[in-house]
Structure formats: structure tokens, C-alpha cells
Specification:
By secondary structure, the chain is α/β, with parallel strands linked by helices. The protein is built from 13 helices and 12 strands. The strands form 3 sheets. A 7-stranded mixed beta sheet has the order 2-8-7-6-5-3-4, with helices on both faces. A 3-stranded antiparallel beta sheet has the order 9-10-12. Helix 1 (17-23) packs antiparallel against helix 9 and helix 3 (39-59) packs parallel to helix 9 (241-279).
Length: 395
Amino acid sequence: MSKLIYLDNAATTAVYPEVLESMKPYFTEYYGNPSSIYGFAAKSKKAIEDSRSTIAGFLGAKPNEIYFTGGGSESDNWALKAVAEAYQGKGNHIITSKIEHHAILHTCEYLEKRGFEITYVDVDEDGVIKLDELEKAIRPTTILISVMFANNEIGTIQPIKEIGKIAKEHNILFHTDAVQAYGHVPINVEELNIDMLSASGHKINGPKGIGLLYIKNSVKIGSFIHGGAQERSRRAGTQNVPGIVGFAKATELAAATMESRSAYETKLRDYLIDQVLSKVKYAKLNGHKTKRLPNNVNIGFEFIEGESMLILLDQAGVCASSGSACTSGSLDPSHVLLAIGVPHEKAHGSLRMTLSEKNTKEEIDFVVEQIAGNVERLRSMSPLYEDFVKKQEKK
């Protein structure tokens, strides 16, 4: 197959033409600074507030609870650091999970060095957080629970409503990193008892460099970036008007197509999983089989290195990954795979493929063929696999 096959939509997505068209006027025609007082700038300001209303409606939030940021990582940092600062009079304990994105984990490490105590709750073999352990971890000094909505590597969707209920019953704030879930599964912050939520535009066919933090009005936290009065004085800096407009347009499109898109991607996802597992020995699905994002496939292959597989797939025009794009330069095995019980020596052999509604069955058939051939090729060069086969033959 000569064309590019893109299966790394968890890392980023293509900007849809409709999104780009919605952004263009705010680069060249309505380029006024939204904080200026003249009429020309008012067009930019109105575009921001209309976008805020669109996104708030999608989340079941109020417009004044939506704050625009530079992306998901900034939103995660803001949520944790601001709560830690604002509520340290109440306590210094935060609960999270062992499979969070590094934007959460590294922020927790930062806070630990500053006297905060963090509990990292275990997950089961499918990557689902252990609710009983979560509740047992609560202390009188617990000020925040932060658990991701869906995992960026293995796609497992967490029991967010149950976590929100636990947090509410104990009068603890609940933040969720919904960067991977936003626009892919239904989210209503009121129904799920979510106090804060992070999301990012470029995961839903919007532009890069734009994100949001939902902060419930009852949550009293301070500014993250100091300076001007933008974002109701909580996040200073001239707003990214084209990015905000594009984010809202992408949200609008995602909302309109979510049901049909999810059904299509789920069908394609399950087909890919079934084909790979039926054609490749010693391969295992990572993450929950059904409680996972519609477009996420993560499979572990014994006796191979995931990086070698990625190189061979790239040569065939297939874009995939071995885990989070944010840790692509790391030689360490995935912390997510280790947390679900994958042995250290096997954690290097994972392949993550994240689909979109643009992918076809023909593309998937080609990818499966490439995977099967590449696994056979890589294992033929592995002394570990050779020893394993010999032992199997002796049995």
C-alpha cells in the first residue's frame, strides 16, 4: 500500500478542514487583541465567549467555568499546583493512580519535594483503578483526588462516576485528566461529580497549543499565570483566538459525530484486535477489552522490541507508537504496562495503534499483514525466542 496509514491519533490528529476554515478569519481579518476596548477587537472577544459557551455546553458546565490554556499538560499542572497552594491549610495529601500521564505524575513529584504527600493507587490487570484501595487511602488531610478519565496508552476507561461519588462523600476535590476521553466518550461534569477537568484541542482534530481547564465555580483556586486580567484574571496572557475558535469547532464536530464515529471505530478496533491475536502467537491485548476508548488498540508481543516494530512499520508507511508520545525518547519500559503487571522484560514489546473514522478495513488488513510478518522476522533474530522454541519442542 503506497499511501500513509496513520494509526497514532492518541498522539495527535489532523486538523479538519472545517476547523481550519473557522480559524482563518482570526489570523488575517479579525486579528484584534480581545482585551482591547475598540469595536474591532470586540469581534475577537465575542468569538472567544461563543467558543467558551460551545465547550461548556458539551461538558454540561457553565461558560464561566471554562478556562482556556496552552494544552492538557498546562491544565494538569494548574489543577494540581493551584489546589495544593489554595487548600494546604486543610491538608497536604493528594491521591492519584499509578498509570497517570506524566503531566500528573511529574507534577506530583514536584509537590512531594515541597512537603505534599502523594498516594499512588494500584490498578488491576486491565488498568482499572481499585476503588476500595482508593477509598482506604483517604485521610483527614486529603485535599484532592486526580484520576484520568481514560488511559492514553492502553485506552482503559476509569469508573469516573464512582470516583466522583467517593470524592464528594468525603468532601474532597476531584480532578480528571480527560485529554484522551474528551470528544470520544460522553462527559457531563455535573452528573459525574467532577470539580476540575483537563482537555486538549489537538486530540479531537483541532489545533495544537490550545487546551482547557474546567473549574467548578465552587472551587476556589488561584491564578496559574500572573500578568493581565485574561480568563477572569486566572490565566494571564493574550488569548489564542484562532486556537480557541478551532477548539470549539472541533468540539462541535466531535459532538455531532460521536455516536456514529464511536460505533465505527469500535468495530474497526475489535477487528484489528481479533486479527492480530489470531495471526500472531504470544501476543496479548493490554487494557480492558470493552471498557476502553473506541479507537485504542495496545498489544504486547513477546520476544520483540516495540521500537524495532515501529521502524519496520514506518518503512511500510504505517504510523503507530509504543506508548505515550511524551515519553518517546525514554528507554525505560512503560510505567502503565508495569502497573498492570506486565513483566519488565515484556513491557518493551508493546505496540499502540489508535484509529480514526478515516481508517478503513483495507488499511487494517494491510497493517495486520505487516505486523505478522515483522514479528516473525524480529523473532527469527532473537536468541531468547530460539531458546523458548527449543524448550517448547522438548515438552
